[in-house]
Every structure is written in C-alpha cells, then in structure tokens.
C-alpha cells in the first residue's frame, strides 16, 4: 500500500531545508567540434582542449572539470565538487569520483591513439579510500596508461584532494577501435 504524500509544511516542527539552490551548466555543442576532433590524434585533441583551442566535452562542464596537463600516455584533470554532487549522506556521490577516474584513465589512453582511432570502456574497478566533501577542496585526477595495445588498452587513475591525500584509485580496460567514418 503506497504511503500518502505529506507536505513538509503540514508537519509540525518540520526543519527548514535551507534556501533552494541552483547551478547553470553551459557547454558547446559537441557535434560542432566533432569534425575538428576527428581530424586530430588523441594527444593533439587533448592539447587543443587544454590550450582552449577546442571546448571541453559537455561532461567536463557538468562535473566542473578542466584539463590541467596533458602528455603522451598521461593526463591530469582538476575537479571542483560542489554540494550539487552530494548524496543523501552529505558527501560527494561516489559516482562523481568514479566518473572522474573513468575520464582521467580513458583520456590518458586517448592521448596514445592516432587519428581515426577511438576507445570505449570495457570495465573499471574503483577503490574508494576517503569520503569527499566540499571541504576537500579541488580534486586532482591523474590518468596514466599501463599498456596501449592494438585492440585493448589498460589504464589507471588516482584522485587526490587539495591536501594531496589519496581519495580513490581505479584501473580500467578499454576497447580500441577505428572510429566510424
């Protein structure tokens, strides 16, 4: 039997939930930059994003993430979590950290791929070591390639907080394939 809906205002002594907040996410159309990205190696693409010559993918805006450094087989992102990423326990949702790790590790592999070659995640294993809150400050995610084969790639990632403490680690397997033309 479903429970009846009870309005918070109808409950005597109900706590104030604080002011309602909002966040606006703005991004560039990824389809418009797709042709430019398709004409570059993975390393050239991420260098262009880091240099501001190409906009970051929309997911980066959603997660408040930016590229800090990029080189062959390694990439570093900064993420500034806010309370919009909180779970019911008052911490940044683990899915946010997992997505950050997936992004860093996969994009590290992307830096090793030539023009016309892409990837997709096959699996990811994450170890959460410490909870994240807004007080953790900006997070740094570093992805690095373990092995980039012709069909399968292996990469790993680490996330640290503003104090340099390790938050989470991940390892991932990625399928490498030609991009559709």
Automatic annotation (TrEMBL):
<dbReference type="GO" id="GO:0047617">
    <property type="term" value="F:fatty acyl-CoA hydrolase activity"/>
</dbReference>
<feature type="domain" description="Thioesterase">
    <location>
        <begin position="90"/>
        <end position="167"/>
    </location>
</feature>
<dbReference type="Pfam" id="PF03061">
    <property type="entry name" value="4HBT"/>
</dbReference>
<protein>
    <submittedName>
        <fullName>Aromatic compound degradation protein PaaI</fullName>
    </submittedName>
</protein>
<dbReference type="InterPro" id="IPR039298">
    <property type="entry name" value="ACOT13"/>
</dbReference>
<keyword id="KW-0378">Hydrolase</keyword>
<feature type="region of interest" description="Disordered">
    <location>
        <begin position="1"/>
        <end position="25"/>
    </location>
</feature>
<comment type="similarity">
    <text>Belongs to the thioesterase PaaI family.</text>
</comment>
<dbReference type="InterPro" id="IPR029069">
    <property type="entry name" value="HotDog_dom_sf"/>
</dbReference>
<dbReference type="InterPro" id="IPR003736">
    <property type="entry name" value="PAAI_dom"/>
</dbReference>
<dbReference type="InterPro" id="IPR006683">
    <property type="entry name" value="Thioestr_dom"/>
</dbReference>
């Amino acid at each position: 039997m479903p429970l009846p809906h009870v309005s918070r205002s109808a409950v005597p002594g109900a706590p104030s939930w604080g002011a309602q907040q909002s966040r606006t996410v703005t991004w560039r159309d990824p389809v418009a930059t797709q042709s430019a990205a398709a004409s570059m190696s993975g390393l050239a693409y991420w260098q262009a994003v880091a240099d501001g010559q190409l906009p970051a993918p929309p997911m980066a805006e959603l997660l408040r993430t930016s590229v800090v450094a990029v080189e062959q087989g390694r990439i570093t992102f900064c993420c500034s979590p806010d309370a919009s990423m909180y779970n019911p326990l008052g911490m940044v949702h683990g899915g946010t950290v997992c997505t950050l790790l997936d992004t860093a590790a996969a994009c590290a592999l992307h830096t090793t791929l030539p023009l016309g070659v892409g990837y997709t995640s096959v699996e990811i294993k994450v170890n959460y070591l410490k909870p994240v809150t807004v007080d953790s400050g900006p997070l740094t995610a570093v992805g690095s390639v373990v092995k980039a084969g012709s069909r399968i790639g292996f990469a790993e990632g680490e996330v640290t907080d503003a104090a340099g403490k390790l938050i989470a680690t991940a390892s991932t397997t990625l399928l490498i394939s030609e991009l559709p033309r």
